[in-house]
Structures are given as C-alpha cells and as structure tokens.
Amino acid sequence: MLRRPLVALLALTSTLLAFPALTAEQTKATPTAKEILAKSTPAEWRKPDPQNLIYMQLPQGRVVIELAPDFTPLHAANIRTLVREHYFDGLAIIRVQDNFVTQWGDPNDDDNGDKSKIRSLGKASKTLPPEYTRPIDPKLAWTALPDGDVYAPEVGFSEGFPAARDPASGQEWLTHCYGAVGVARDVDPQTGSGSSLYAVIGQAPRRLDRNLAIAGRVLEGMPLLSGLPRGAEPMGFYTKPAQRITIGSVRLAADIPAKDRPSIEVLRTDSPTFATLIDAKRNGRNAFYALPAGKVDLCSIDVPVREPTPAIKTTH
Amino acid sequence: MLRRPLVALLALTSTLLAFPALTAEQTKATPTAKEILAKSTPAEWRKPDPQNLIYMQLPQGRVVIELAPDFTPLHAANIRTLVREHYFDGLAIIRVQDNFVTQWGDPNDDDNGDKSKIRSLGKASKTLPPEYTRPIDPKLAWTALPDGDVYAPEVGFSEGFPAARDPASGQEWLTHCYGAVGVARDVDPQTGSGSSLYAVIGQAPRRLDRNLAIAGRVLEGMPLLSGLPRGAEPMGFYTKPAQRITIGSVRLAADIPAKDRPSIEVLRTDSPTFATLIDAKRNGRNAFYALPAGKVDLCSIDVPVREPTPAIKTTH
C-alpha cells in the first residue's frame, strides 16, 4: 500500500484513479502548487531588502527572518542595532513550549539567570513603545482574503505578511500565524526591545494579536525552531542549561558582501500567482482530496520562498 | 528584565502591576486555567473507556491516544485488533513533515520499502470504508462553540473531541486540530486501515476534514511527536532508516491490569468548567494580555487531561 499519500493539498501526483461517486468535473485535478509556481513570472517575486533580512546560525543550520518595518519600525531598527553589535552571538534558545513558541535571547535575563552576567544591549534601546497596531495606510499593499476569520473583521496579506484590519478603528496589525516572529516582553507593554524574540511553532495563537509586537516572519529554517525537544519546565523552559541550543551568530544581510548572500526571493502576496495558489488551496481537488474545503484560513496559507541560486554554506 | 512573560493566556501570575490606560475593570484579572480547574468537581471529569485508550511507547516516553468509536467505529475496532496482535511493536515513525503531521507505521509499506518484508495485518482488515463523516446523532453530547469557523457551518465538541457539523447535510465529523490522530490511506478513499496513523503537529490542516478519517486524539505525549527532527525528504520522510524513531510497543489499556493503568481523566467538554475555560480564553484579560481576543477558534482550545495518581513507568 502506498504510504505517501498524506501530502499537502495539491502537492500530490495528479495521477487519477477512478472510483465511485466522482463526476468528470470532480476528477479534474487542480494544478499542484509546484505547477502553479512554475508558471510565475520573475516580476511576481521580490528580493527582500537586505536591511530587513536576518540570518541566525544554529548548530543544525540557518534560520532566515524578514523584519517588518512597515508595522514595527522601532523594533526593526533596534534589532538591527543589536545584530550589528553581535548581541545575539553565543546566546541561546531558552525555551520551546509545545504548540506555542520557541523563544531565544539571553539565558541570564530570566528569573533563574545570573543577573550579574546579563549581556549589555549596547547602543540599543532597552524598551520600546509597543507597536502592536498601526493606522491603515493605503500606500501599503493589501490583498484581502475574503474567506472570513474568527478573530478579526478583515484579514489578508500586507507586503508579504499575514495581517488583519479593523476598519472601525482604522488600525491594522500582523497576525500570529505559524512562523511569525514576536517580541518577548515583561508585563508592561513598554518593555519589549527585540533582545528576546519568539517564533510561533503551533496552532496560530491569535489571542496574542494586538497584545504583542510582531517583528517579522521566518522565511527559511522553521524546522530548526519547531523540531526541537520541548522544555520540561513550565512554559517550555529547559531544565538544564546544557539543553539549550546555542546561537552561533546572527547577521544582517546588508552587512554581508552581496556575492555571499543567499539570493532569497519571496512570492509577492499581491501577485496573480499568489491568488491562484490561494484559490487552489481553497477550492482545489484531486484524486486524493476529493472534497474541496471551499474556504481557507489566513494562517494556513504559505507564502512561497525560493533561492534561485544555491545558498552559501555558513560554518559556525 | 523578566523573560517569562510569554505564557499561555491566563496561565500567568495574577500579580497586577499598574500602568497607564487600564481601567479598574481592565485590571481585574481573569482567573487562570489552573485556578478554574481547581474549582472543578469530580463529576466533570471522565475516565476514558480502557477499550479506547492506547499507549504507544517511544524511546523518549509514552504517547496516550483516545480512540473515537462514535465517529470511526470500524477504524477503532481494526486498530484494537492490530494493537492486540502487537502489530505496531518495532515499527517506526516514518515521517515528520513540518507544520503538518508526524506519521507512523510499517517502513516497508512505502514506495521505498522492501515489499517482501511488509508486516502482515493478521486478522485486521486491510481496507475499510472511509468513515469521514457520520449522521448527526442527538444522543451524542454536543457543545456548540458560537464563535464561528472559517471552514464549517457549526463547530463545537462532541464527547470530548473537537468537531464540526453541517445541518444542511445532517452530517458531523471530527476536525483536524492539533493532536488529532488520522488514518493514512492510499489515493482510493477505501484504502485506510489504521495500520498507519498520523498526528497533526502544526496549524490545523482543516482542508483534510472529510477527506480523511480521524481515529482519535492524543491525550498525552504530543511533545514526543511534535518535537522530532523533520525529515529532509519530500513530505518529511527520513533520508536514512536509522533516523526513524522505533516504536517500542503499543498496547490497549483494557489489556493492562487495572492497577497498572495510568488513571487518566479528561475534562468533560459538556461541563460548566470547560465552558468557563473557553470563556476565559475568549474574553479573559490580565496584566499581560490587556486586550481580550473576544473570540476563540475551535482548534485553539485545549481539552484538559490529568492523572490524579502517578503514571506507571513503562520500560522498553
């Protein structure tokens, strides 16, 4: 028996097997994501600004994060300052809470840490205004998702990021979908700085929306953050310091010679190909998935990322 | 700076710090989940039927699964038969696909396997009818979640499981939320047997609803399935057989002497305490989460599980 069937929708073979209760229309397989992407044009892909691209080197590989200065400009600037100071080098992933987040930062900057060894933030700010929402700006691209949402009046994509809007308040904000990179903080909303960040690794914790700042999104390397042993302590903290994963280095793409940068490209979320992908996920069917969902949830939509030329191999 | 703030909503300290823009009402913290559960009554907890409880022993610990015979009776019976034959003992976790599923079964029962070594299913059926949906039955407990849903006309909990309904068709079905255990199959809907199962480890892949049978739900041990290295091959298959995680044993609680069984209890999803928990998640606020979400998504609700007496330690 074939045991490879549970593929993501439309990524399957389009081989059709006849079985009862399917009409001719139903057996016409929707193109796969790969097939749809193969027809994309170069103009539909964007190269993220090197000022917004961060490479975090972990023992098992590289995580690439795109900052979102349209939504959290002060945090983006502060994180750039921290990265340029090599603040994160040698710090660690300090907790992995199942179905929630993986968080990294200074292990000593914690209840159980050695306060005398807390690393200085250098020229970076220790605290920042929250930046949880921003006024809706017609100049920012907005691609509405008409499928509805449990949490927000309107959802869609803004400049590549899953986002939500409330026309009544005139505000928009990034959403805590899988791969969102948020800013850890103390109880006071003013206490985030970007020196400790978390990535969403489970079911979208949308209740965090508008209660925490989202600094960006993981473009590559999510499995390096999600596929880690969960910490046994409350909130997923590791019991022993040796269980933490040490961060080799964190660098800004802009500080790496252009020839050494991976040529990462992200599909534009206002492109026709992205719309086709969403519709294939919403209404697509094939021999394996005979019944289309009819709708698609904001956080179940992946924004495709590619590297047209081979990535550099960073050693650590 | 305290670095333990990013706790799940309401699991936080209720210590209140005063800061601007909060009214007296806003600073009244909602009770935490722990506080709410502490007030539950014994009658609000149920002991799953030992005929429906499965223990899967992995190298790192034990996974407990509750079967859902109300929704997938033929699959439950077949899985019981397989378990009683010790079919799963020595088989393996064969793939971990990021933000999707962890799947286990016979590594040889796959495209790249050695067909001559496929393990016999013994007296179990090799194929079963799909059991993707079932007629709505007023005799089954149904606790509606009024918050809305992107995918289904109605959602809620049925006998402990997150589920969806369509009054128009008169059908109901279990939903692919985090921890759902589904039945892998070939392209033909009739080809599932329960000999290969998957658990959802990421954003709920609700497009799988009504396209695959859900055999049950993981009650304990999700981190043992979600915190695994992702396979590097397409669909998360492991590149080398040595990377697979071997299953020590799979047993039915009913086949274990009662005194040796963990005394697992699950909060009734039709209990007042469960309703209070949901509302705390929906409308709760505290010093950290100043803005309530106002709504809650079906798949973001955890059904509490407890072990009033210590678990047995199974060696393998």
TrEMBL record, chains A, B:
EC id: 5.2.1.8
Pfam families according to UniProt: Pro_isomerase
Gene3D superfamilies per the UniProt record, alphabetical: Cyclophilin-like
GO MF entries: peptidyl-prolyl cis-trans isomerase activity
Signal peptide: 1-23
Entry superkingdom: Bacteria
The keyword Cell cycle is annotated on this UniProt entry: no
Transmembrane segments: none
Top-level EC class as recorded in UniProt: isomerase
InterPro entries: Cyclophilin-like_dom_sf, Cyclophilin-type_PPIase_dom, E_coli_cyclophilin_A-like
PPIase cyclophilin-type domain span: 59-252
PANTHER family: PEPTIDYL-PROLYL CIS-TRANS ISOMERASE CYP38, CHLOROPLASTIC (PTHR43246)
Protein name (database record): peptidylprolyl isomerase
Species of origin: Rhodanobacter glycinis
Lineage, top ranks: Bacteria, Pseudomonadati, Pseudomonadota, Gammaproteobacteria, Lysobacterales
